[in-house]
Amino acid sequence: MKKQEQPSLIWFNGNVEPWENATVHVWSELATRGANIFEGIRCYQQKDGSHALISLEQHLNRLFSALKILRIASPFTKEELKAGIIDLINALKLEGHIYVRPTVYVEKGRYGEGYGEVKNGAYIVAFPVERSPSIQEGIKCCVSSWRRMNDLSMSPLLKAGAAYQSFKLPMIDALNGGYDEAILLNDKGLVAETTGATIFMVRNGQVITPPISAGILESITRSNCINLLRSHFKIQVVERDIPRTELYWADEIFLTGTLAELTPVLSIDKIDIGNGAVGPITQKLQTTYLGICEGRKEDTFNWLTLL
């Protein structure tokens, strides 16, 4: 994803405001401890020029599930945040595909609801996002020496702003080594996920992906792709542990995520995956998935919320 220009508008605590009006003090819990829960949602431009949000309900449900775990009370309901997302997109009048990030944050109250004075807020950011050339060309990955946090420290199920600092060192190492992305192992030495996407492997016609218990985000894009593979393509998908070495034996590997969409992996640790090109299962899954998202294929799964 290329660096984006600053949006002109932001949804901030109930209203669409000029970007510069959205301020929180530097001594807030948001600034000092990264106390927030966020979601990343794609809004796809359809073939007729309109827009549609993908898996909106699932994203908001995951947001509120994470807020529950961290004892952060949202000052806005799911319906109010949904209306805020739509109001902001309509006000910005953006062209092309859009990335939307609703965030609920803590301004005051270190330990959350029920433990002293608490003040929370919410904001929504939306900006156009170009499709990465990596979607077609594929990427090079390495297996990082840094491990994915497990559920007994900061749960990978939570999209908490502070937790994403744990991906900084793996990405620095990957970029310094000439790679595009880092694959993280969990505390058992098994494959977890990358710094921003879940991972799938194809071996002998079977698609394999680590289970949620491997220490990964309960990815909505991952779930959509599993449903598409099983229901549309009738391809067996197995959720099981994957040792590092097995990655090198894969016929195909691809990543899934809101920003990654469906990204092919061509090599890991300078070892070609398959023949080092985008594989046939990856290709047809990507074509169908993006076709549904962009309104070029029928949305039989009811993923899209049309605006």
TrEMBL record:
Cofactor(s) the protein needs: pyridoxal 5'-phosphate
One Gene Ontology molecular-function label: branched-chain-amino-acid transaminase activity
Keyword Amino-acid biosynthesis: yes
Keywords from the UniProt entry: Amino-acid biosynthesis, Aminotransferase, Branched-chain amino acid biosynthesis, Pyridoxal phosphate, Transferase
EC assignment: 2.6.1.42
GO BP terms in the entry: amino acid biosynthetic process; branched-chain amino acid biosynthetic process
Pathway given in the UniProt record: Amino-acid biosynthesis; L-leucine biosynthesis; L-leucine from 3-methyl-2-oxobutanoate: step 4/4; Amino-acid biosynthesis; L-isoleucine biosynthesis; L-isoleucine from 2-oxobutanoate: step 4/4; Amino-acid biosynthesis; L-valine biosynthesis; L-valine from pyruvate: step 4/4
Reaction(s) this enzyme catalyzes, per UniProt: L-isoleucine + 2-oxoglutarate = (S)-3-methyl-2-oxopentanoate + L-glutamate; L-leucine + 2-oxoglutarate = 4-methyl-2-oxopentanoate + L-glutamate; L-valine + 2-oxoglutarate = 3-methyl-2-oxobutanoate + L-glutamate
Claim: Transferase is one of the keywords in the record: yes
Enzyme class: transferase
A family per Pfam: Aminotran_4
Role this protein plays: Acts on leucine, isoleucine and valine.
Protein family (similarity comment): Belongs to the class-IV pyridoxal-phosphate-dependent aminotransferase family.
Protein name: Branched-chain-amino-acid aminotransferase
Gene source species: Aureispira anguillae
